[in-house]
Amino acid sequence: MDIEQLKKEREKWMTWKNISPLREALNSLAKYEDVNVKLEDTLTIEGEFDTSHITEVAKNMMPWRKGPFQIGNLFIDTEWRSNIKYNLLRPYFNLEGKKVADIGCNNGYYLFRMQEDNPKLLVGFDPSPLYKTQFDFINHFIKSDIVYELLGVEHLEFYPEKFDTIFCLGVLYHRSDPVAMLKSLYRGLDKEGEVILDTFYIDGEEEMALCPASSYSKIPNIYFVPTIKALKNWCLRAGFSEFEVLETKVTDATEQRKTQWIEGESLENFLDPEDSSKTVEGYPAPQRVYVRLVKKEKNGRK
């Protein structure tokens, strides 16, 4: 696969009729040199800003899913309080001097936060021109060295860099062949490395998975929701030598909720109004498992 050619082709996505006006608005922003960035729960950018124009540009980029962000007096109250997930995982990784990828990076909130570890390289993968534009909007002020690729997990093994740590948060359940995706993650690592992964799971001691008929929590592209034992089997079949459960957590309204910065519905609309332990389809309500997968090559396997 010619990744460089693919990247050039996908750059054309930024000229789509729904994206091009956003890019023009982004280019209209003034250049701000004297800013102070705080890598905190709310990623904060301090400076003397034309907040009214910045707010107008940001609102045109809705919906904002991951964050939150503060730019001067502008607070972007995103659907997800992504700091909750980041803080949950923070004790389990050290990225200093490492090459790091974030698969399905959205607007780059986690990547921006990861700068605090001084990694050697930060690369985000997400084939969404809207999220890339949101990233560029935030990075207009931060001016980081983060690389954002309009690529998916299926391109990871063909990418010119191999990574020490790969984050893959909230992607696996969107793939119709989860073992194939896990193999792509495995091949994207250097000879030794780790994946920090989270996905939906269901309770149970058996090695089995829920296969939603048409949607799960009103999300149509959810294919498999495994028990933790089934997830472990998938990961070992993909080649990983270690599988470690870090945390489990029920998704609740303190973490995901509707705000003025999104369009449409959020978690409260996805659950049974009479029983929040179930989705509107009658399945177990979303809960996530966070795991570390370790690659250690042996017997010549790569």
CATH superfamily: Vaccinia Virus protein VP39
**What's the number of extended β-strand segments?**
15
How many discrete structural domains? 1
What is the typical, i.e. mean, pLDDT?
96
Main beta sheet, described?
A: 7 strands, mixed
Low-confidence stretches: none
Strand order of the largest sheet: 7-6-5-8-9-15-12
Structural classification: alpha/beta
The CATH C-level name is: Alpha Beta
**How does the overall form come out from the CA principal axes?**
globular
Percent range for helical residues? Answer: 25-40%
Q: What series of H and E elements makes up the topology?
A: HHEEHEEHEHEHEEHEEEHEHEEE
CATH architecture: 3-Layer(aba) Sandwich
CATH topology: Rossmann fold
**Contiguous helical run count:** 9
From the alpha-carbon coordinates, what is the Rg to the nearest angstrom? 19 Å
Kindly report how far apart the N and C termini lie: 18 Å
Q: What report would you give on this structure?
A:
By secondary structure, the chain is an alpha/beta fold. It has a single domain (3-24, 38-296), classed as Rossmann fold, CATH 3.40.50. The protein contains nine helices and 15 strands. The strands form four sheets. Strands 7-6-5-8-9-15-12 form a seven-stranded mixed beta sheet. Strands 1-2-3-4 form a four-stranded mixed beta sheet. Strands 10-11 form a two-stranded antiparallel sheet. Strand 8 (163-169), helix 7 and strand 9 (189-200) form a beta-alpha-beta unit. The longest helix is centred in the middle third of the chain and has 14 residues, at 129-142. It starts with a helix and ends in a 6-residue tail after the last strand.
